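Q: For a teaching session next week I want to show students how multiple molecules come together into a single three-dimensional assembly. I've collected the sequence lines for a complex. Could you give me the predicted structure tokens for the whole thing so I can convert them for display?
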Amino acid sequence: MADLLDAFQLGVRAMFAYQAVFFALLAIGLNLHFGYTGLLNFGQIAFAMLGGFGVAISVSKWDLPFWVGVLVGIAAAVFLALLLGLPTLRLRADYLAIVTIAAAEALRLVFRSGGSTELTNSTQGISDFNADFLSLAPWSVAKRYDILGTRWSGGELWVITVGWTLVALSCLLVWALMRSPWGRVLRAVREDEDAARALGKNVYAFKMQSLVLGGVFGALGGMVYAVGTGSQNPDQYQNANTFLAYGALILGGAARVMGPVIGAMLLWFIIAFSDSALAALVSGDNSFFGLFEWGDLLSTTDIAYIRFIIIGVGLMLLMIFRPQGILGDRREVMLDAR
Amino acid sequence: MPADQPHGATAASQQPAAQQSAPTAAPAAPARLAQAALRDVPWEIGVAKPDPAIVVDGVTRTFGGLTAVSVDHLEIQRSGITGLIGPNGAGKTTLFNLLTGFDQPNSGTWSFDGRSLGKLSPHQVARLGVVRTFQLTKALSRLSVMQNMLLGAKDQRGEGFFRSLVPGVWRAQEKANTEKALDLLARFKLDAKKDDFAGTLSGGQRKLLEMARALMSDPKVVMLDEPMAGVNPALTQSLLGHVKDLREQGMTVIFVEHDMDVVRDISDWVVVMAAGKVIAEGPPESISQNRAVVDAYLGAHHDAPLTVDEEERVLAEAAAAIAREEGVSGEVLSSESTDREGTQR
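A: Of course. Below is the structure for the complete assembly, covering every listed component.
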């Protein structure tokens, strides 16, 4: 029982850790793309990678101040969005999906290739770029703090403070945009592009604006992740993260301002809770009603996989019993899209 | 306009003569104008109209080997209702798509109010005041009826990315648009549904919503692609009333329709297409007697009696065919062939 409580505590801690911020920002971007505009961006992680490496390279390779690195990261994400959007946004939705998924994988491979060692340190990764950022913290980053029974280092606390502020501001921005006529056009584009065109809306421009803004949210996520881990390695940006972010978005409810945030927090609770709960189950002398020992059935290395199986099953159940996600409107989701 | 009638009546009781004649005469007048203007126009293909809003010149569109549209010259009279009819596959919807920029032609030019629409994209055409509806209704399902309507309004300040973040810039305009939308919804009897998702409306209500939404932009030309398809007869009457209203407000209406009664009832001018070409145009009463039209709908040689010469020629051809066939395939088919010969006699 004490193990379970510990696992619960770790789960709650993970809800607020910088990984959750990372996924929340990825999912906020995807929400803008997929939830509101109907764009299928399957390479959101590429925007995050440009954000993270934008900061890392600017600071450690070019000796630029931290905030310039942030601007470089954002500019890189805007550039990528334009590059991907220009040829594909006039075409059907699937083409953007194909191009983004390919670009995400290609970019990661380019960043880790030997040829780009000079800039990205290849698979070695870049570290020592977040000192400037941590020095801004109003409290000591080396000290440890106890908050409601969870332990945080001062540095972590500073990262998540800035991170959650960013999330809050992003949500505020999305909320302000979506209640405006601009947001109404985005939703019209999602429902039917041709109808929006027939009403005099420049669909291409709206889709491009949405792609760029969502990409910038992704880049901000990457930056939070970069300062959170303190090191940047291209292999941290596997495209599986894009789909986990989609999972978070659907879990929380697409086309809802708070959907991606709730979804990302819940996703990380499930991951962290099942991780430590399963670890406790396997390590102790726990038997399944005296029939077999859990420790004989599962090894500690299985746990990393099993927690994702749990998430997968959970998502399936969610789709069957609550397709609108946690915050969604069932009537809206059940409507025929056409 | 019917909604205005009681108003006019009460006003008339206080101020006789002049006031009374105005509201009753006004709605009918423009309709007669368009009809009167077209009265002296000859019933010829590509004939020039007294006051054309849209002029089409040599527009062709081919899909592979199929020529979907090939219109040499066509003018659409302003402030009139022009019906566009023709059998399935005649190219009516393709012509609509070309005129509104949803499709690009292989050749040709067309203009609206003297302004060429050739290289414009759909949203630019719409902004000039040429709006269309679709054959398969495009209600934006997961937007409310009211949001659908507001989307139709033109020149919205709040649709710019940065301006949308400052509500003060667009709130007044939004309020005015909302009032206009409520007005239109009341006219189309959809006001009770304004907060429902458009996806919950019936097929006929969606047609109404699409038309009302198009009117939000105060268009000059309204192009309706089969506005009555799948609408129940009771609703058809009210839809017809709305279409006539548009003409009375001075809009130019072009509509595709298959129901000949509807076409006869409301059009000032009818254009008939078949196999991509305009095969006839004229006032509705001229169309049903038009030989080319009857041929297009029923097939060229539907019930014309054979002359003796023709009959002999057909029989001779049949006999030659049978002879050829017997020469090739021999005994097995011969009995069948004689049967066929028998039926042909």
